């Protein structure tokens, strides 16, 4: 991983431009490639050089400011009639930096600067009779004419524009590639974040489902066991057989509770068919010493596992509430109506306030019923608590 600060390369380039430019200025008034006198004003040249070198050093960390420095230095050069220096090739670095790291506005302004700068620079060199123009452009025009090629000033301006535009275009290409790479990385991160969020949501949903299932299983079993234990104190002392029967029922309820908890904790995808089904739940409440009036309307039918599990847990929670909040010795009414949908209703007189409709048990029951497209109604009125669930039995949902 590259931990080098972004300003380090720019500082290095700026120093190179500055050192080379100072050497060029103080090397004398002689062009090092031609040996001819340039007659350069060193003070003005140093000032122009300072702007160009600073701009080159800031080409990455502050491209817009670097572009402004180039234009200030160029304007100063025009006003002071300072001849062009080779160190001013640092402008190419600024063009690259503006296209690569500048803002959108900086990119457009630097792009517009290319033809304008080329036109001004070439026009000034050719028309002002500068030493650099005399040494380069006059020789260039003479050489092209000698070769039979008529090169106009427009062509020279275009060549200057291309010379300035090449590093700008390279920077622009690298900018687009970097943006595309970042877009791909963001897309990958977004997909990974979405998948992680979905995994977390699935885990939480599974934890919620398991919490509701454990609540229903343990709550129902404990309610039945408690009712059976309380009924034992009213048994005649001279009837050990009845006491043994009650204790056996408690053991059966506890064993069934352990079995149901194990099944819940296995967290298998496919719900298991409940042994004994709905009738077993009703008989378990009767065995706990509660009077139950059970009515079945229509013809019971085998259900697919997912609907059977919802029906079983729904009736289980309804009976748990009936045992916990019902009046002992009074009937618990259970209705199962088989038609286009299975209606399960449990009604009992209440001796205490039923569970909060937003509580864990009723919330879990509602979630299960609605998960298969059913409906649940819970109400308490006139000293009676009634819970009714409608489970759809659409064509294709019945077990074959």
Report on the structure:
By secondary structure, this protein is an alpha+beta fold. It has 2 domains: 7-151, no CATH class; 198-392, Histidine kinase-like ATPase, C-terminal domain (Heat Shock Protein 90), CATH 3.30.565. It has 11 helices and 5 strands. It has helices at 7-26, 42-57, 63-80, 90-101, 104-128, 131-146, 153-232, 240-266, 277-287, 305-325, 360-371; strands at residues 292-297, 332-338, 341-349, 375-381, 384-392. A hairpin with a 2-residue loop joins β4 and β5. The radius of gyration is 45 Å and the shape is rod-shaped. Mean pLDDT is 77; it is low at 30-37 and 395-400.
Topology:
Layout (H helix, E strand, L loop, with lengths): L6 H20 L15 H16 L5 H18 L9 H12 L2 H25 L2 H16 L6 H80 L7 H27 L10 H11 L4 E6 L7 H21 L6 E7 L2 E9 L10 H12 L3 E7 L2 E9 L8
Parallel strand pairs: 1-2
Antiparallel strand pairs: 2-3, 3-5, 4-5
Helix pairs in contact: 1-2, 2-3, 2-4, 3-4, 4-5, 4-7, 5-7, 7-8, 7-10, 7-11, 9-10, 10-11
